[in-house]
Structure formats: C-alpha cells, structure tokens
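User: My instructor asked us to take a sequence, write out its structure as tokens, and then describe one feature of it. I'm not sure where to start. Here is the sequence I was given:
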Amino acid sequence: MKPRWITAPLVGLALVGGTAFAQDEAAEAQPAAAPALIDAPEIEMSFSDEEIAKAASLLTGTWKTSAPVREFGTNGQTNIVMSIGPAKIAGLNDVLYCEVARAGDFASPYRQSLLQFYRFKGDLRLRTLDLRDTSAATALLGMCFTPEVFPTTLTSAEFFPTMDIDLAADGDGFSGSSPAPYPDHRGGAVQMTSSISFDGETISISDVGYGSDGEVAWEVGSESPVEFVKDSEIVTVDRYEDGLIVTKFVDVESEPVTEGDFIVVDYVGKLTDGTKFDASFDRGEPFRYQYPGTLIQGWMRAVEGMSQGDRVRIYIPSELGYGQRAMQRIPAGSDLIFDVECVYIDRTEAEEAPEAAPAG
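Assistant: Let's start with the prediction itself. The structure tokens for your sequence are:
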C-alpha cells in the first residue's frame, strides 16, 4: 500500500478560487519572463571606530573546521560550520549575527548568538549574547546568509550576555581570551575560559572547563586550537530582481521534479518576526501536490528544479505571496519565509501509445 499523504489546501500556500485563499487574476498571473538573478547587495553597517569595523570584517563569512572535531559529551566527530553576518538590533551597537551548525545540517543550527564589539576602559572587547525566546531564534534562522532581509522587530531585550573576550591587534588580525572564568555546567565543569584568534583567513578557538576543585574537567583545542577556515561554497543563495530569495542548504544532483509529477514536501511557514503560521510537521504528514500546482507565485518559482532530498529556505516578498490580502494567520502585506525539504517525488508514467497494426 502506498503511503498516505495530505492533499488538502494549506494555509499560506493554496490558491483556491471562491475561498478565502483566492487571489485576483493579476496576482495569479505568471510573469512573461522569469526575473533575473542579481548579486548580493552591499550591506551598509556603521561601527563605532575603524578598529571595530576591521575586526567585524575579519569575522564575517562562512567558516568550516579544517578537520572533524569531537562533539561535546560524545565519541562522535564531525565538521562544524560557523556563519557570521551583519546584524541590526535595536538598542545594540557594533553587532554581528552568528549561527553554528553541524556540517550537512546548516539549516538547523544548534547555536544562535550575537557577537558584539565594545570598549572597556578604552580596550577592545568581544561579547557573545544568546537568545531569550524561541520566536527571536525562529526569526533569525538563516539571516547570516541573507542579511538584506534581517528582521527589524528584534531588540536588545531579547538577548542576554554570556561571555567576554579581551581583544588586541595581533599581526593582520586580532587575538585574546576571557578576562575571567564564566559559569558553565557541562561535563562536570562549574566555570570555563575561552580564547580566540582570527585574521580573515582562519578563526582559531580554545575552551577549557574547570570543575569545583579547580582542576580541568574538559578542554577543547587547548593543545591545538580548533581551526575554522573560510568556505564560501557551503550554502548557495539565489536572489532575484523581484525580491524572491532562495537559500539552498542541500542541493542534490539528481533528476528534478517535472510537470505532472507529485512532489512531497515537509515545510514550515513563518512571518518575518518568527511567528509560525503553518507547518506540515504539526499535522504529522508531508504535503503532497501535483507539480507545478496552483500555489502562491513565490513558492512555485522557488521549487522549480527541486530534487528529492533538496532543502531550501524561501523568502517571499508580499507581492509574490498574498499581497495586501489578509489570509487567516497572515496579515495583509506580509513577507513570508518557508523552510522546505523535498522528501519524495512520485514520478508519473505516460501511457504507452498502442502499437500500430501490422501492414496488411
């Protein structure tokens, strides 16, 4: 028996004539020619001084460990990816946004934080700030790759400081360590120290945890720091002149979906402030429809060429979504973000033409 998939229209996706999901003919009409791809825009960031601007520039980018590292508390090893991009948070100056993920699972970082530069008694410091609530974390997902659509709703109240690093110029870059131990609870430790160095080509990090007896409980990179090297090809971002952005976390080299196939996807839909309005996971089953479907224009264009196993994040400006029409949990004029994974493609098979009768 074939698996059972949901086929009903879903909030945030379907365009069904005569219902609350309908759009006018102009909204449903497809453009005569596909909008062109464009380059990533320049993000204008202002920093308090030139040294802070230089340090921020050297940290910005996507970084991958030069060799697999042991995951904390396990015997497993994996490469770690750290992605750092511009951030604008009301009430905070000189900040960057950072995601840390396991290689192969970039779309689901296990840590999200801010990196803030500031001066203490005139000397440079780097501070990490973690998130207080899940809505802010959801709103920030992937914004290190698409800073041009960084959420404007976040404020300093949604973050709390976790550690500091004293920084000083070191050759072409910077290096430093925590001015004092800070609290920790992992692996029997009660406090830890951290150090970092970076020069625009590599980032090296060392951490040491100490138990209540003052002895080392665990250490990462103390003898040989964990090294990250810049890697700009980990994630691909396609930007279109009409505002559609498709971030490709997994891009499988296999036969893409074609017209008439049934495509099966898991997805989460959210507003730019992190509010979730729909998700296949909440129903416990993926969403199945016949490609290309009659869905919102931004979705339809973004899934063109998807293959089984592909995983993307789609930013859809309101003009390619529902425009000025309010749709249940989606306010009028809302830009939309979807996380989409193609879990299966059910290929259709054309009926064979009848054989010609033998010549008489």
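For the description part of your assignment, you could build on this observation: The longest helix spans residues 50-59. Try explaining in your own words what that tells you about the chain.
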